[in-house]
Amino acid sequence: MTLEATSSTPPNADRAAGAEGKKSVDDSVLLHGFRLGYGYVMNYDARVPAFEGKSLKEQTGMRAPSHFLLGYEILYRVVSHSWLNVLLLANGMVAGIEQSKFLPSANLLIGAEIKNSFQIGVGANLSPLKGSEAHFIAAAGWTPRVGSIYTPFHVFFIPDVDGVHRMGATTGVTF
């Protein structure tokens, strides 16, 4: 009888234990990171009832319908250890910096993540703009993993009953 045959530990036990103990970034449940992007407002110069007959352009002092977006995002991932995860997401964004404006908004979404890379979600868009405080938001995107970080690319659409729809795209880094 040899020494290997008398051992109660399987020959590859140390390697298997090391593989189980190593965590992947795909198993992380709390992720966060910076975002930057581009936003566009449709019909921003149209007069609407929500702003007492003024346009969004007049209400905010915007000079163009296009704007730069800057923000931070926190994502809670319910990891299923399969092809589908549940996402709870919150982010704060500021728009209009290039127009010397500070137009903040917050987004709260619930969604799904397919194979740790494609996300879809819906939720609420909130802003302190009187007459336009809350809207629905739909978003989708792809978030490839690069080493131990993610580099998201997302698009969003915020419909408005008065036709002042908003849409845009963001990218950034998540860790």
Structure description:
The protein is mostly beta strands. 10% of the residues lie in helices and 48% in strands. It is built from three helices and ten strands, in the order ααβαβββββββββ. The protein has helices at residues 3-6, 13-21, 56-60, and strands at residues 30-41, 66-78, 84-95, 103-114, 118-126, 134-142, 145-146, 149-150, 153-158, 166-172. The strands form two sheets. Strands 1-2-3-4-5-6-9-10 form an eight-stranded antiparallel barrel. Strands 7-8 form a two-stranded antiparallel ribbon. A hairpin with a 7-residue loop joins strand 5 (118-126) and strand 6. The longest helix has 9 residues, at 13-21. The termini are far apart. The model is unreliable at 1-7 and 11-18 (pLDDT under 50).
Ordered list of secondary-structure elements with their pairings:
Layout: H1 3-6, H2 13-21, E1 30-41, H3 56-60, E2 66-78, E3 84-95, E4 103-114, E5 118-126, E6 134-142, E7 145-146, E8 149-150, E9 153-158, E10 166-172
Antiparallel strand pairs: 1-2, 1-10, 2-3, 3-4, 4-5, 5-6, 6-9, 7-8, 9-10
